[in-house]
Amino acid sequence: MSVVVVVGTQWGDEGKGKIIDVLTEDADVVARYQGGHNAGHTVMIGEEKFILHLIPSGILHPGKICIIGNGVVIDPSALINEIKLLREKGIEVDNNFFISDRAHLVMPYHLIYDISGEERRGDNKIGTTGRGIGPSYTDKVARTGLRMADYLDKDLFHERLKANMFDKNLFLTKLYGNEALKFEEVFDKFMEYRKEIERYVTDTNITLKNSISKGKNILCEGAQGTMLDIDFGTYPFVTSSNSTAGGVCTGLGIAPTRIDKVIGVVKAYTTRVGEGPFPTELLDSDGMKLRDRGKEYGATTGRPRRCGWFDAVVVRYAAWINGLDTMALTKLDVLDRCEKIYICTGYRYNGKILKEMPSSLSIIKECQPIYKEMDGWTEDITGINSFDDLPGNARRYIEELSNIVGIDFCIISTGQKREETILLDGPF
Ligand code: GDP
Ligand code: IMO
Ligand code: MG
Q1: In this structure, is the dihedral angle defined by the CA atoms of residues 428, 246, 306 and 297, taken in order, positive or negative?
Q2: If you average pLDDT over every residue of the chain, what do you get?
């Protein structure tokens, strides 16, 4: 039995979906622990592309149990849509899928708050996905959120939604100058949605407890990445949940003593979507090349991702915060035919050299990356699935990353597809 956590080490979109899909082969249960449909996890099976937003990426393997934990916030209409799309592609979402009764809902007013809040922030906007995620977590912490368990209790839901909407409408009309939402319309729509999802709702804490006691292999799927974590990311340019490994404990009810292994997913370079500091960002043709070759466009919003060289300060920080045991390197093939490749080993700031991630945003903004130059390779490595078949300079790049971060790799990904993977060490 093992509980294995898969976590993003950068600013999200590291390729967690692909790695989860590869590892699900040996897992019994795959569980999401935080975030919402702000996430977009891409899995390619043959020529068919799946983008998972809420449902764990393990769903594409028949016979595996998939769980949305209490730490996730759920927009029922987005979930219903995702289930429908999966079913249309012949994927089973039925007795293999469970939703925590402690998970919070994303409501229509959360969406409006998110979008209006961004508009009001103007140049200081966060660049959210506009999915209502932040406002839903705000309500959770303010103790005014609505949980799945409340949703299943029609009278309670009616009463709490009414009270909430009275307050929300005051803000919507008086502060944001929007129209008020109509309570009956929202309530009726949510009762319709409920019919579609209530059969999946259960106490997933017990499901997980039973699975762990039976010796099953559990894979915990993180969304976003370490630098988007509400506590450890580049605050306030972050998401509203703990995307780091600690989120597993609170977002699934799996205690720290039960976690066996943490795998950090690391892209071979760095990307970020949305606003906020990004020390190794390339605004020149090298950045454009990375975006083009890596097809770096958001899986959820389609926005172009900002691209830059590998930042070892970020990944070393992620290694400590998440207690990484091992790492999965993705998108190495995107660096094919780069004459030179650069690794940021530290930052220059105010005449000093920084090796640790600063907390202050104004310091991070001023940091100048210090680069180590590496020679690239001319071969196309797409699909290579043995370490020894990689060109020497690709192997040297991997070894250098591993040395600088201080953690070994268990997986090297050389393409989008399942089989385009070098498996060095199985996690379970
Ligand atoms: P996630 O949010 O961390 O799951 O990552 P996304 O799905 O948002 O973005 C990663 C993108 O890179 C997806 O389009 C993947 O199909 C793709 N991808 C993953 N691994 C590799 C790889 O090794 N090589 C290439 N070329 N693409 C990859
Ligand atoms: P996956 O799981 C990359 C970013 C948004 C924005 C900030 C806050 O696919 O890696 P939010 O809507 O969460 O309030 O937005 O976080 N963001 C992501 N960036 N990948 C994601 O998820 C993201 N989820 C949120 O772009 O900068
Ligand atoms: Mg993504």
Answers
A1: positive
A2: 97
Tell me, what amino acid is at 85? L
Active site residue 388: no
For residue 239, the CA-to-ligand 2 centroid distance in Å is 6
Q: Which of 13, 75, 311, 325 is catalytic?
A: 13
Measured distance CA(393)–CA(1) in Å, rounded: 38
Q: What is the pTM of this model?
A: 0.98
| Residue linked to tokens 């979906």 | 17
From 42, 267, 420, give the residue whose CB has the most ligand 1 atoms within 8 Å, as the site to mutate: 42
CATH topology of domain 3-100+201-263: Adenylosuccinate Synthetase; Chain A, domain 1 (3.40.440)
Determine whether the shortest distance from the Cβ of 8 to ligand 2 is under 6 A: yes
* 104 has catalytic annotation: no
Q: What is the pLDDT of residue 1?
A: 67
- CATH number corresponding to 104-197: 1.10.300.10
Q: Minimum mean pLDDT among 67-76, 275-284, 292-301, 409-418: which range?
A: 292-301
